[in-house]
Request: fold
Amino acid sequence: MPELSHRRRMLVLAICCMSLLIVSLDTTALNVALPAMRQDLDASVAGMQWTIDAYTLVLASLLMLAGSTADRIGRRKVFMAGLVLFTLGSALCSLAPSLEALIAFRMVQAVGGSMLNPVAMSIITNTFTDPRERARAIGVWGGVVGISMAAGPVVGGGLVDSVGWRSIFWVNLPVGLAALLLTWRYVPESRAHRARRPDPLGQLLVITLLGSLTYAIIEAPQKGWASAEILLFAGLAAAALAGLLVYEPRRADPLIDLRFFHSVPFSGATVIAVSAFAALGGFLFLNTLYLQDVRGLSALDAGLYTLPMAAVVCLLSPLSGRLVASRGPRIPLLIAGGAMAVSGLMLAAFDAETGTVSMFAAYVLFGLGFGSVNAPITNTAVSGMPRSQAGVAAAVASTSRQIGQTLGVAVIGAVLAAGMADPGGSDGFVAASRPGWWIVTGCGLAVLLIGALSSGRWARSTARRTAERLAEPVAGGPVAQSSAARTSS
Reply:
């Protein structure tokens, strides 16, 4: 890709951030709309879980395919296709006549969404080649998550109260169309130097793993953890995982290059992404239901209650990016893990949500943690990797986020549903949600401990060795052959 002027690079960053904005805004606005959707569509807790997890599940399953496809056929092409599908899916969601139709249309949205964020991150990585400039750009990217967390609940709540829950999907239409036109006009095409071959069996194994695991977790409270159906799907998930571990290393161009995980910082960033976004998914799910079902707040008021958390995320994300650029990822990761763990502990052990001041304190702490974690995850995932595999590396990080959010909603929703079987009302919800807040606390501790282990000198040395191995062509393999062909020509 040709070197762009500073102004053009900033414009490309802004266009990529627009795609992140509509995806993130859609998710945060949807959480506020869950009670209204449940009432209108006569849905259960599991039904509400599926409106979120059907989207994140498809997204997680296809992100790596989208990343490698974009590296192969062109990042701008795939990015524009994603904008078209996501915008179309949003329009269909607004017209959904039933819960089943809504879930199906959310899956259409997810197919488009899988082509947006990892591909946009790959475009950013290849546009901002200077490590410090790239870290700052990633900080801005993370700040958009904060903006969406601030605007999503308020905009979504206002629309739900005034127009209805279907209107939350209308917001995506003008932004998606504007991003499509600007991408066509200003974003240059780029692709990897060597095309990676498709891996259909690997893709099928990933879909089987994530789909079976999520189905087993969400449906287990109703069907029974020891039922034949749940055990069957759990067995499928285990078999798919074993298949990936055996099959992928044998391919020249695997869907998941397991050599990436020889890098301790990359492996750590993957686990941290799963943990942090599991905490976020569970936090938003429990918080939305508590504020509206227990406290009796309107959708708009519930959105306004989350503003302290979102404002801190919005403020901290770009600062975290600058801190990563100047000091590395260690300090932001320790801040993130500690703050998220304390926030979860306040809600788990001290019922912080039952007092307004203590609840806001927990919100601010969670925002401090989540606002600090995004930049080091993304920067660690793409830094040190060959630029030719930037799309795949970014897609692994994005996949980890979506897997985390899927599992967070699935596990914490299942725990809540099991606890709410008998008790009802305010006291029943608080008691049933307490195990969920302990899970959030555990996720924060995981971020803290793994962040400390994966950001030291030894961990950085494993990243350097991994990057060297990835850059070395295998004798007689596809990379060596294509290199020889270019040399002879």
